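PROTEIN DATA CARD
Card holder: Permease
Chain length: 357
Origin: Methanofollis fontis
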Amino acid sequence: MIEMLIGSLLLGWDTLLDYLAEHVLTCLIPAFFIAGAIAAFIRKEAILKYFSPDAKKSVAYGLASVSGTVLAVCSCTILPMFAGLFKRGSGIGPATTFLYAGPAINILAIVYTAKVLGFDLGLARALFAIVLAIVIGLVMATLFRSHDAETKQKMAAMPQTPAGSDEERPRWVFPLFFALLVGILIAGTAQADWMIKFPVIYALTLGITVLLIYFFERDEVTEWGWETWDLTKKIFPILVVGTFLLGMLAFFLPPETFGPFFGTNSLQSALLASVVGTVLYMPTLLEVPVIGTTFGYTSGVMAGGPALALLLSGPSVSLPSLLVISRVMGPKKTAVYAVLVILFSALAGSVYGMIIG
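Structure generated from the sequence above:
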């Protein structure tokens, strides 16, 4: 018994060290700084105000499907924002699109998925999350037209708030600032020698420093630092502990155990993975080592189709989140939403499985 415990601890420690060595410096640290900059510098109101039932569909659903990259990093952040949207008069379609896409397409999750599980799966996750979010939102809006009719009446009686003043800094500053941050992330994760990568990262960092000195206020830079730290302290400890525990779990329950269930790209395997993702609660980013280590995707035990289905359903819904959502929009709408997530995630996983063969 003691030998098994020691063996599980050692495997958990080895798994954690591998993840820290391969992904933290080149992947997670730049991604945390990008997410912190998004939270600090991009106004949430500029996105949220376009979600009303009267808004142009291409604008409402387009913004809702990608706003998770701007507004949130996990479902715990999305849920209160979704509740606020829903109660302040958002259309049910854009609101549920936002609810689904937010946790699935946040910048940390996409980057981490591509780095750990492969670029193809990371890209598929991003693209399918956007498409599925829009489709699910449109279906919800079609099924619950009466909700939007009532919302329009409420919106008509709400006072209009004046728009905020524009920033005095040149418009090109923010695009260049984020481009330099993304450049550091790309350079850090590139398969190249550090003698080549380091000068590139140094030059990009120097460019960011110049922008911060000449075009940003000290309070803005401080807020960026606090936002980055806030994200790091919320997510990184969970990721470290979760990865260690998953390594221990792999000692007692090796990935080969899940081969008969998730080893093929069939619709049945994708559907089962989607259901498992809907039931389980996985903190942000932990779904990546769960799929890679526990279910054995990185070792070839889990097929790509079920892996994508789990990535699409797991971060967006769970039993705890469904309980919260039911209190916001009612059990009936919540049940329909959960079923749509399961079915469309499974379908997307099956399609991806056929594509990759």
